Amino acid sequence: MTAKPKNRALTPDELDAFAAELDALRARTLATVGQADADYIRAVYQAVRYFGLAGRVLLMVAAIAGAFVTPVLWIAGTLGVLSLALSKILENMELGHNVIHGQFDWMNDPALDGRTYEWDIAGTSENWRKTHNFRHHTWTNVRGLDDDIGYGLLRIFPEQRWRPFYLVQPLVAVVFAILFEWGIAIQDLRLGRWFAGKKKTRELLEEFRPVGGKMARQVLKDYVFFPLLAGPFFLTVLVGNVIANILRNLWTYLIIFCGHFTADAETFSRESVRTEGRGGWYLRQLRGSSNIAGGKLLNLMSGNLSHQIEHHFFPDVPANRYAAMAVEVRAICARYGQHYNTGSLPRQFGQVCWRILRHALPSRPRAAAAIGATQAAG
């Protein structure tokens, strides 16, 4: 691995100036948000619907006609899975995630209201608003406050206390990727507290009620209702839905992990953020985030989380603006001597895999303490 880039220490005045420049960029961008952005998100909304419908129809054709003509089974089935997976990816990444952040509340469109939008995954939007919009975006990479650091399953950073369980985390990481939406669904239940006896079973069941209801609806929709429409040929539709959901889970996992757990990403202690101002908050978002270099297709398919830095800076700005904002953000970071972490998808994911493999093993206490001290000082 290459040496981690050094960030220049900023004086209090420089931190204030850094924040002022980024705040000004946000204000300028929001002042120009309007019809083009509304047209864009409505086009995404329609794409989700039409790709989803096409996928459902093609899977039905594959199930019924494919039972008699084998080429139809493979061609229609493959196209159906890909179309349905594309619909689910777009709905989760570019539509649901960004709408739930309130990026399009200004449109006053009930279908795109971040306070009421419910998306097509096992977890509830309400839990996501709590664990992601509030907890993660407020306390990004702060140990003990941001539950997204390893999601309670993985040791990604040396500052996390090592346990023998982490020896199997390369396998756990693969299973977690396949079942990612289900892991996200139960994240706010904090099952570790229940296993440790710090949460009562009655409390856990109460918290699980809305989550369980959403899980049941998702299972009935994808694995019962639509397959049964194919009658005796239900198995093809069922398998198609399973594969489409797995593809969506794998892609979501890939993008999220590449945006947070590359080699240059840092974590922070609670003490280091006690007196954190606006400039310090921006600096923490920068040092805890990673961009993925790519073109317009990657931006769309990732929900523009290919610009994770910009998203962490400006979570309420329409994400389709991030690519343009990134040019100025990168220049601002350069002026203040701050590393702007970006790289290709294979490069960033390779670093994520290295972290998962390396930190499955115990870290040398001296190395971990040195990293922690450097971050606290930064």
UniProtKB/TrEMBL annotation:
The keyword Transferase does not apply. The keyword Transmembrane applies. One of its GO terms (biological process) is lipid metabolic process. Keywords: Membrane, Transmembrane, Transmembrane helix. GO terms for cellular component: membrane. It comes from the Bacteria. One of its GO terms (molecular function) is oxidoreductase activity, acting on paired donors, with oxidation of a pair of donors resulting in the reduction of molecular oxygen to two molecules of water. Residues 74-342 form the Fatty acid desaturase domain. The chain crosses the membrane at residues 57-86, 165-185, 223-244. This is Fatty acid desaturase domain-containing protein. It comes from Arenimonas metalli CF5-1.
